[in-house]
Model the fold of this input.
Amino acid sequence: MKSRLIFTIISLMSLISGAWAAAGDPTAIPLAVGNYLTTSTAVATGSINTNDGGNLGSIQNGATATFTLNNAEAQDMVLTFLTGNNNNSSPRVTVTMNDDTQDFFTKTVDIENTGAWTPVTLHAFDLGSVPAGTVKLKFAFTNTSSYVGNLGSIGLYSKTAVDVVPGNITLSNGVYQTARVENAGNVGYVSNGAMASYIVNNSTAGMATLSMGLYHYGDGTINVVVQDATTGNIEITKNITINSSVCQGLDTPTDFELGEMTAGLKIIKMKFSTSADYLCNYKNVSLAVTPSSWKDIAIDLRNEQLGTDANNPNNKYLTIDANNAYTYTDADPDPYNAYLTSTKYNGNQHGYVSFKAKVPVLTGIYKITLGTCAYGSGTGYVKNADESSTLTIIDENGQEQTSFNQNTGACYHNNTTNNVVSVWYEAENDETITVVCGNYTPYFAIEKVNAVPELKYAVTYAKGDGVEGTVPGVEFMWKCFG
Done:
């Protein structure tokens, strides 16, 4: 059985209690600018080692807030803050940090409309190494209307100091809306529209599992979103169905598989929905990750990896080790990352003839890229393991297809960047797929991605009676929704 590597938790200021939790002894930047920020600049000075915090309210368009800090030594740090907004006028805040010589961090984020001005949306960023000495942290607010929103609970943390809590998400360290933290680490009477946010630091990529004890009030869902704090990318969006069968009691946690998560600093957001007055109580929340066996594959097949003997099949098992080194063997190493077959090696320009790749994939979305060739048949397919059925793929225009064209009239060796064709396949379960290529394949890659291309639709033009001019060819337009 695979081991489950546990996330470590970066402590937050509780929105409910207004006090810092003791775990990891996190500290906040003092905010000495009062309850309202209406001037163009507000400045506060102080040490990052004080247990203080605050909230800036009624922030106007064009306002800025700058805090001058004294960092005792260079260290890896994390920045967190909350925002709130109650309109849809595109409010944003740009955060900048500098050491009087240069900006070493800058990020612009949208201030989400949560239906209230109270700061409840959590933002977190891995700052990397923050230099020793005087550091300035600046918030600049913009909007298309007068007011931007509220800002609160600014925290600046040393990663070394806070990455010490294994596994359990401490409920008193969360950020909550329309829910209350009760005794014994229990979030009580969670109603429709309630939200909770946490920060976790994941040390390894793999399959993430959320575990929580639940007390059932009514049926509904918990929408769980995992966002990478460095890139801002949404890695997981998962709806968990809540009913009496999955609620085993607060002291008997239920596991929910969320999906694949990369390593690094993450924001975990949960939004609760129910048609009843209340959905649930919950406690004993933890996150775990099982390292996956999946590794992205990229092979330049012009380099004789499968051999060159024209009298024997060119078939090899591919395994990729922990250091991403590739090994090609004749015998099945169990498990393998791919089984590669061909009928002939065709030299250092066109690669292998009748190339196939049998690849065990996990649940998720995969981008498959092949080098193109101007010679021979170029039709390729994605099939199941024994090639008894053809699977549906997505092309670069977001269109569903059952085959792809590998002969674009251009050869891969002439331009290894542009002369490729890519398709996307979504695996609903762990399975093995077979990529069946055209006559010549000089390059093969398959990588796990977060999404398929957005859907476009084809527009064709035809001249009517009495109309003169040149008819354009097929054009692709973005499909509009809503």
